[in-house]
Amino acid sequence: MEDKILYIENLRKKILNHMLIILGTSITPALFIFFPLSLSAGILPASLFILIFTTVILFLILGAITGYFKKYKEYKHIYKKAFVEGPFNHAFDKVRCDFKKGISKDVIEATKIIMLGNRYYSNDYISGSYNNVDFERSDVLIQNHTSNGKNSHTVTYFQGRWLIFEFNKKFHFDLQIIGKGFTYSNKRNGFFTSKDNRRRKVEFEDIQFNKDFKVYAQDDFEAFYILTPQFIDTLKNMSNTMDGKFMMGFIDNKLHVAINTGKDAMEPSIFRSIKNTNHGEVEKEINVIINIIEGLNLDRDLYN
C-alpha cells in the first residue's frame, strides 16, 4: 500500500506542476498585452473582466492541447480506485464501481419525486450489498439553464448523492418524504395530476415530525403502515446528523434517498498531499449507507 500511495502522490505532484505551468503561461499574455490595452481605456471593471476572461480561455486551450485535463481525469480515476473502491470492498459485498458513469436520468425521472430541469449529470456510480440489502449510489447534478440570447441563467435544482435501496416489499402506492429545506421536489399533488397518480399530504400525531418533514402519499393507509413511530424517530435523528437536506421516495420495491449536499463527494484535491489527506469523507459515504439500512431496518422482513 505504501508503494501505491507514493505512486499516486508523485502523480499528484506532476499534475499540480502541469497546472501551474499552464496557469502561468495563460496569465502572462493577459497581463502584458490585453490588460494594459483595456486599462488605457480607463475602465477598471472592464479591464479586470478582460484579464480574467483571457486567462480562462488560454488556460482551457492550453489544458486541452497539452493533455492536462485528460491526465487530471486519469489521476482522479486512479485515486478513487485506491481510496474509494478499496474501502467500499472492505465494507460491503458484491461491490461494483464505475466512476465515469452514474445513475441514469431515466431512473431518476421515473420516480417523479424531483424537478429535472434541462441539464443532468451523474458519475461515481457504486453498487453493492449490505446485510443482503442491495444498494446503488452516485453523484447527481440537476440544473435548469435558460437564455434569451443576451443573458443566461442557471439554477441548480440538486447537487449531491442519490441512493437507491432494494426493499423487501413491492409497494402498491408511491410515498414521498421531504425533509425541511429540501427544495425543487416534485410533489405531484396539483390539480392537473390525474387522481390515480396524485399524492396527498399526510400528517401524523408527531408534531415535531410534521415540522421537519412533509409527507405526500397516494394512499394514507400505506403511509401509516410504513411510517411507524420507530421509523419516524429514526428520520428525525437522521435530519440532525445528515450532511445535507434530504428527501425519500418509496417507488415500487425501491427506496430512493436524495441528499442535497451542494457538492460532489469523495473528490481528490491536487493541492493537498495524499499522505496528509484525511479520507474520512469516504468513511462518511460508507456510514451513510450503513446507517440508512440499519436505522430504517431495511435488512429485516418488516413489510412482508
Features:
single chain, 304 residues, alpha+beta, 2 domains, nine-stranded antiparallel beta sheet, 9 strands
Report on the structure:
A hairpin with a 2-residue loop joins strand 2 and strand 3. The model has no long low-confidence stretch (mean pLDDT 86). Helices cover 44% and strands 25% of the residues. It has eight helices and nine strands. Helix 1 crosses helix 2. The chain has two domains: 65 residues; 201 residues, no CATH class.
Strand content: 15-25%
Morphology:
globular
- Report how far apart the termini are: 45 Å
How many helical stretches? 8
Give the class from helix and strand content and strand pairing.
Answer: alpha+beta
- Tally of strands: 9
Radius of gyration: 24 Å
Sheet with most strands: strand arrangement: 1-2-3-4-9-8-5-7-6
Number of domains: 2
Encode the helix/strand succession as letters.
HHHEHEEEEEHEHHEEH
Q: pLDDT below 50 for ≥5 consecutive residues: which ranges? A: none
Which percent range fits the helix content? 40-55%
Question: Strand count, sense and closure of the main sheet?
Answer: 9 strands, antiparallel
Mean pLDDT across all amino acids: 86
SSE arrangement:
Blueprint: H1 2-39, H2 44-65, H3 68-91, E1 93-98, H4 105-111, E2 119-130, E3 133-147, E4 152-166, E5 175-179, E6 200-202, H5 207-212, E7 213-217, H6 220-226, H7 229-241, E8 245-251, E9 254-260, H8 280-295
Antiparallel strand pairs: 1-2, 2-3, 3-4, 4-9, 5-7, 5-8, 6-7, 8-9
Write a brief caption for the model.
With 304 residues, the chain is of the alpha+beta class. The chain has 2 domains: 2-66; 95-295, no CATH class.
